[in-house]
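does this look right to u?? glycine version
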Amino acid sequence: MAQRLIFTNDVNRELATIVERRHPSSVFLLTDENTHRMVRPLVDLAATDIIIPAGDEHKNIDSLQQVWRALQQGGATRQSLLINLGGGVVTDLGGLAAATFKRGMRFVNVPTTLLGAVDAAVGGKTGINFGGLKNEIGAFAEATDVVISTCFFSTLPTTELKSGFAEMLKHGLLTGSDEFDRLLHFDLDQLSPGQLLDRLQASVLVKQRIVEQDPHEQGLRRALNLGHTVGHAFESHALTCGHPVPHGYAVAWGLVTECVLSHMMMRFPSSTLQQLATFVRRHYGIFSITCDDYDTLLTLMRHDKKSRQGEINCTLLAACGDVRIDVTVTPDDMRTALDIYRDLMGI
Ligand code: GLY
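got this back:
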């Protein structure tokens, strides 16, 4: 059953309608400590609250057990409903808790961050971190409904908004040049969440269309990996060096590098590459690397979850909207792309 995407500025009314329509035997509402404090007061819904600690370091089996225990103690049944109100950690972990409790109960995602709305909350990937690896344990399980509203974003720091916007840029590149151009016209430093709703809706629908065709990531869904082979390597390298960077920022720099590769290998237009690089440099700054970092970055790319047999695997573009998945990139080509990335960024 396809998940229902609801774009609204009246979350309370939509949640009331969902509860009426789904007619659950009981309702549970999952937040983390931050969303419980900041967002829960805005949500007018009678439910048993479950609150987990905030932060990716708590996206683990302990928090998952805490949710299972609260559901059990609260008398949840398969006919109950779990509402996940929060960012990616809450929707990923809550989704997994619901997918596994009594072999599956229904859940609704209400993302409270732009990154969550545009990516984590939609498409049925649930999970927790395990054994030092991100999202190592999980299941594909779709929320029955995803309620998306920009009203929660007004208190988000600009860094958070920009992080989510990078995934929108990715969806724009996957769609076509018109959508990509529209996104480039946003001034991220003056971004007001209200202006975003139309573009956010277009962006989420890009993901929804891809996921509908390939829910279990056998092929086409890997298109959503655009920017992430390099982006994840930048993110992990920054973390190891003790200077963590937001996920979306790493994706933005990863998009530039992978569009360089696209230009080298598939004639992706250089004018679009230039536009992207200029936008990213202006709004996300520079991820500074030297050629001494290349070996570490290449090792990280070979160990990316989506790579096979130790090869570097990327999603690339022949043009905006013309996607090639599972492209093997040689170490030499990747080194050249990193050189050009550094030139474009002025490093
Ligand atoms: N975040 C990429 C996906 O959901 O497949």
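The chain has two domains: 4-155, 158-188+216-345. idk if thats expected tbh
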